[in-house]
Design goal:
176 residues; mainly alpha; Leucine-rich Repeat Variant
Length: 176
């Protein structure tokens, strides 16, 4: 665990730590086990760093999450907003490749649609709409929820994620 801990505990700036951890995980996928072992008792800032590194990797290559998607989903309702939104972003990044596994995040993401933080609600919206896009069974259950959220969501940026998803899904149905 020393290489992983050295990065996390270094005196580097947060962005530098994220870049270092992302590079380390990309080059040595086995470090994910160190990350998972460290995570439960880690300080909030370190937990955010860990999930952000996974998020950065899955942006480029969602297949990385094959070894840790369930772990990430379990963090969606963490008490730290950064962990919540980065975990939801991982789900968003991986829903196309792992639609069934990503759908297990739905209950936690739905809970985050009522969070007081706009970024948390925004990332929950992105995660839910990506799941709906790639998982037809979940899509049926989520469309009604999206319509309800559109009615009550006050932030236009968050609301527009659902509006765009509903339009895209409807357009896709007509094309068939």
């Amino acid at each position: 665990m020393s290489g992983f801990i050295e990065i996390v505990k270094s005196k580097n700036k947060p962005k530098e730590k994220t870049a270092l951890l992302t590079a380390a995980l990309k080059s040595n996928k086995a470090l994910i086990n160190d990350l998972i072992a460290y995570f439960p008792n880690a300080p909030i800032a370190d937990r955010g760093l860990c999930i952000e590194a996974i998020s950065e990797i899955t942006k480029e290559g969602p297949k990385f999450a094959d070894c840790c998607l369930e772990f990430v989903i379990a963090q969606i309702n963490d008490k730290a907003p950064r962990v919540k939104w980065e975990a939801a972003t991982v789900v968003c990044n991986t829903a196309g490749l792992f639609p069934e596994r990503a759908s297990k995040a739905i209950p936690a993401l739905i809970k985050n649609t009522e969070d007081e933080g706009t970024v948390v609600r925004w990332s929950a919206a992105k995660g839910l709409t990506e799941i709906a896009k790639y998982n037809l069974e979940s899509q049926k259950k989520l469309l009604g929820l999206f319509a309800k959220i559109i009615e009550i969501e006050e932030n236009n940026g968050v609301k527009n994620i659902y509006v765009k998803a509903l339009k895209a899904i409807e357009k896709g149905k007509r094309a068939k």
